[in-house]
Specification:
By secondary structure, the protein is mainly alpha-helical. 76% of the residues lie in helices and 3% in strands.
Length: 338
Amino acid sequence: MMSTETIATIWAGLIAFAVMAYVVLDGFDLGVGMLFAVERGAEDRDTMVNSIAPMWDGNETWLVLGGGGLFGVFPLAYAVIMPALYPTILGMLFGLIFRGVAFEFRFRTETERGRKLWDFSFFGGSTLAALCQGLTLGGLLQGIHVVNRQYAGGWFDWLTPFTVLCGIAVVVGYAWLGACWLVWRTEGSLQHRARRQAQVLAWATLALIVAVSLWTPFLNATFMHRWFGWPGILLTSPVPILIALIALGFHIGITREHHLTPFLSALAVFVLCFAGLGISMFPLMIPPDITIWQAAAPRASQLFVLVGASVLIPLILTYSGLSYWVFRGKVKAGAHYH
């Protein structure tokens, strides 16, 4: 029979997986939305949207799973994180909703002015959602002030230079993912422009990753020990080495005009960054003090929700895999999903 601590650890892994899946999957379609800022052609914008149309709403399922799991299995974490980061979470949800509305209505407007309005809304919602996700990550990493199991900070404790840096890093990183996605899924002049954008955004993303990584250990003694102490350095040191190797692979793939390699390289960098965060934080759920086991619900509640998750997660994986398989290949200009 599994102990409460073991089940809580399993659930922490499941939620981490759901959040990582959301980041790498929804990240590229948010990035495509942000690239509307530099793409002026109406037909090319339609192609960009059609490249993500079959997947974008399914990608956000992982966000629902992560948030629902946090509420059901780690109620203390949910009760602390929500008031501490409420403005950034609300901003993220507003951006996602606004982007979804713009996504559908831009195909149904009958005027050029209306199309431009919804295109700007699609760009704005995507950018706001990405920025707020970075601010939320930064606010969590820098620590939340808790007294007697309740949030004891102010409304704007989340707003610091570090969280702003994290927000910018996520925005640029998602734009990089979006450009790499377009390199893979489009062709012609649009693909050529996306390849140039991906090259620039890759180095900007890597520079921001370095900046965030150098700042993070100084936020918390646990982070410092994991990255520079013994034996924590044995776990953390492979992460930057692997990122450097993948960056080299990206450079080779993008300069040799590979189609899929740049996208896979960008995804791998995000996965490694997420792994680095996990290594830094474990077993903390809310830095600097609350662990996974302290934040967990009673064992019966964890088991009850775990039964549902054991059915739901395979279904989401199957649906997502089928969507990517059915809608594989290049998106042709003029071909409409709607």
